[in-house]
Amino acid sequence: MFSYYLDLALRSLKRNKVLTALMVIAIALGIGACMTTFTVLHVLSGDPLPGKSARLFYPQIDPEDMDGYEPNKEPARQVTWIDGMNLLKAKRGERQALMTGGAVPVQPAQSGMDPFFSDARFTTADFFPMFETPFLFGRGWSEAEDNGKARVAVITRSLNDKLYGGNDSTGKILRMKDTAFRVIGVLDTWRPNPHFYDLNMGNYSATEDVFVPLTTARDLRFERNGSMNCWGRGGGDNEHIETATCVWLQFWVQLESADKAADYRTFLDNYSKEQKALGRFQRPSNVRLSNVMEWMDVNKVVPSDVRLQSWLALGFLLVCLVNTVGLMLAKFLRRAGELGVRRALGASKREVFVQLLVEAGVIGLAGGVGGLVLAFLGLWLVRLQPADYASLAHLDISMLLVTFMLALISSLLAGLLPAWRACQITPALQLKSQ
């Protein structure tokens, strides 16, 4: 019966081409607007490390003085060098990484290439296994190389292509700030979105091109980037930042269970009380422990305007569906004579209702195709914007399926009232009028 209803639907749509086109356009406009904004929202609010984000945590402690103190206020979003090193060396998690962003002057060996600055990540050895970074060549460095302030570096595939033509560069020398570094690893394409491990560098910024041990970067006084908050007599100069009362480092820890997360929170509380007893901390213990997705919520990573645009697009779709309801109602009621004959020949209300819903579904699928074209156009326009997330606006397979599902469901919902009204026509009255 479905193929029969489908044939009837196609015949009906061909007979009323203008009305059909209006309905398809109305649905296409609503679907196009919705899928453009929903795709951007989907990309920006996605899980950057599926399957692992629930086991990665960002600890927060409150090392500041009493100036401006408010009970239960959110503690600092970064840590000092002293606290970061204390937490790192405590080794209370399966893995832990201390880090900050920076920039390094790269001095290519090729005579025809000028020196340039590259974004860098100064971090510790567990960064690579903890965040499951894929390696194209080589490896990350070890804890021993961290402690020894080794002159080693990991670079990205894009920088490897630029400097070494895409060949395996492990073992080669890379000069940065007049210092020779040995390349020990090349990362394959890797860009977690959002840039969750350091939101100070931009919520959706690209992955840094150079990774260097944190101790090495400090030993060579590489320039750091990102925010820094100081209090008391703390100063933010690059020479004495290790002893300054300033928070400027990010610290992540991997905990494999809820019990271990609870134990780590207790450890943070005890650490804060211990530091207060030693005179370093002045405020009462105030600690937080957020996993990746919770940390993104704390920082309101998804721009509020994107959420607002999604709601507005949904409202626009509803307006388009209301118009489609009116057009379908007019179309179905104009066929009252035909439907009356079908009823008189023995078709039940249910069969007529299903026939009309199949027709509405065909209109929805056609509108979905049009909406998909408009969504591609809308996402192209988004990618032209100066926003840091613009380059991420691409339609993936899941959102492609959502496009057609949304179009089909929307058209079926729009067709419910017109189909029901058309089924209420009394066959005898229609036959008498004919």
In words, what does this structure look like?
This protein is α+β, with helices and mostly antiparallel strands and 434 residues long. It has 2 domains: 2-45 and 303-433, no CATH class; 53-298, no CATH class. Helix content is 49%, strand content 16%. The chain contains 14 helices and 13 strands. A 6-stranded mixed β-barrel has the order 2-3-8-5-7-6. A two-stranded antiparallel ribbon has the order 10-11. Mean pLDDT is 85; it is low at 429-433.
List the helices and strands and how they pair.
Elements: H1 2-15, H2 17-44, E1 56-60, H3 81-90, E2 95-107, E3 116-123, H4 127-130, E4 135-138, H5 143-147, E5 152-156, H6 157-164, E6 173-176, E7 179-187, E8 210-213, H7 214-219, E9 223-225, E10 229-230, E11 246-247, E12 250-254, H8 258-277, E13 288-291, H9 292-298, H10 304-334, H11 336-344, H12 349-383, H13 397-423, H14 427-433
Parallel strand pairs: 3-8, 5-7
Antiparallel strand pairs: 1-12, 1-13, 2-3, 2-6, 2-9, 2-12, 4-7, 5-8, 6-7, 10-11
Helix pairs in contact: 1-12, 2-10, 2-12, 2-13, 10-13, 11-14, 12-13
How would you sum up this structure in a few lines?
The protein has 434 residues and is α+β, with helices and mostly antiparallel strands.
Number of helices: 14
- Strands of the widest sheet, in order across it, are 2-3-8-5-7-6
Structural class: alpha+beta
State mean pLDDT (0 to 100 scale): 85
Number of strands: 13
| Beta-strand percent range | 15-25%
Radius of gyration: 31 Å
Total discrete domains: 2
Reported for the largest beta sheet, the result is: 6 strands, mixed, barrel
Which consecutive residue ranges, at least 5 long each, have pLDDT under 50?
429-433
Helix content: 40-55%
Taken from the alpha-carbon principal axes, the silhouette is: elongated
Q: How far do the termini sit from each other?
A: 28 Å
Helix and strand element order? HHEHEEHEHEHEEEHEEEEHEHHHHHH
